[in-house]
Prior knowledge:
Elements: H1 2-12, H2 16-28, H3 33-53, H4 59-82, E1 89-95, H5 103-114, E2 117-121, H6 128-137, E3 142-146, H7 155-165, E4 173-177, H8 183-189, E5 193-195, H9 198-209
Parallel strand pairs: 1-2, 1-3, 3-4, 4-5
Helix pairs in contact: 1-2, 1-3, 2-4, 3-4, 4-5, 5-9, 6-7
Amino acid sequence: DELVEQMFDDLYDGMKDEIVEGVNILLERGWQPYDILTKALVGGMTVVGNDFRDGILFVPEVLLAANAMKGGMGILKPLLAETGAPTIGKMVIGTVKGDIHDIGKNLVAMMMEGAGFEVIDLGINNPVENYIDKAAAEKADIIGMSALLTTTMPYMKVVIDTMKEQGIRDDYVVLVGGAPLNEEFGKAIGADAYCRDAAVAVETAKSLMA
Ligand code: B1M
């Protein structure tokens, strides 16, 4: 699709207005919000990620791309939420301490809301208390953690170990996700499940709540 190709370029160049416009045009053409999210926005961000890794793009450029992506996500969020049924569970989600990546976490939060979950977003850089205190205060069913760095993913174990120490581990379903994680890591730290992407997070949450 030519427009999607154009949107990949616009995202790469951090052109927020163009991304917003592209999302609106795809909606007018009858695209499903979820397809726009995954094919146009996440697809484009993958290209950005690869060039960031390879030293072709740098932090300021990636921030602009992230900002453009957020512009597009802002339009899709209410549309994804619309399809939601009555609340089927409550989730507290946040990016772990030392980590400021939030696009993937925001995506998971959006998709969970769209699927009928109530989501309390803790934002980025969360110490263990944030998860535990908020989950208790909100009587949440699920604690979700996101980490995008190999240096911050071990912190997920700190949170789970602290829950164990306090005797509250089994009061919650614990889901973890983020690009550097895998199934094995999720098991090793004692999470209930590792979620490869936002769609898997929704499916996993649903099945573990049932
Ligand atoms: Co950062 N960064 N970054 N970065 N960044 C990565 C992660 C990196 C892989 C890039 C690279 O080198 N290829 C690399 C990590 C290397 C490693 O640890 N192995 C990296 C680095 C090194 C860094 C810095 C250290 C760079 C520096 O300063 N030298 C620095 C760290 C700052 C910090 O956190 N302390 C840094 C900074 C940044 C920006 C600020 C510039 C920006 C973040 C902006 C923002 O988030 N607001 C940024 C970005 C954008 C990226 C890349 C390019 C894209 C991440 C992203 O948003 N992906 C990334 C490269 C890449 O991943 N390709 C990179 C799109 C998003 C939809 O995917 O987050 O994977 P993802 O989420 C998915 C799934 O993983 C899953 O579902 C999501 C949707 O499907 N998921 C969950 C995620 N969280 C979940 C939680 C769940 C369930 C599923 O809970 C239940």
